[in-house]
Amino acid sequence: MRAAGAFTALGLDPLLLDGWFSATLRDAIAAQLAGGGAAGAFVTFAEVCVLTNGAVDAIARGLVARAGLEGVVAPLLDVNMAQAFKPDPRVYRFAASQLGLSPGQCMMVASHPWDINGALSAGLRGAYVKRGEAYPSFLRRPEAVVGGFDELADLLLGKPE
């Protein structure tokens, strides 16, 4: 298994894989904002897909290409496939079903609070990538507020800060 080898190569216990794969839904926009290096390292451990309100061909493919993650991030999903717009909970449930997972096995990682709130309302886990704004107190709270994928990876792996 590719992920087990990657864990071992980094000196991590492959038994941690379940924790990583229980958090599989990611937002390519947050990946791009986090930077290709951090996002590239993150996808070594987690299955990463795109879920966008735009069209896959118009937005997602370009974001993935600019982040240097072609062939790594898949599937590329958009709201047209789900026949609803984010933050409608049906969109997030659709994405989980496309991954063959229950919503609770997925984590939406995004830099948009409304996106995290929508995912949480659909039963997904959430991590907010902070880009200058505090997470609004009136929305459902994500389990993590982080500055980037490196910080999220450490948090999910239980590494000390």
Automatic annotation (TrEMBL):
Gene3D superfamilies with a match to the protein in the record: HAD superfamily/HAD-like
Top-level taxon of origin: Eukaryota
Swiss-Prot/TrEMBL keywords: Hydrolase
Listed EC numbers: 3.8.1.2
SUPFAM superfamilies per record: HAD-like
Molecular function in Gene Ontology: (S)-2-haloacid dehalogenase activity
First-tier enzyme category under EC: hydrolase
Pfam family, one: Hydrolase
NCBIfam families reported in the protein's UniProt record: HAD-SF-IA-v2 (TIGR01493)
Protein name, as recorded: 2-haloacid dehalogenase
Organism: Monoraphidium neglectum
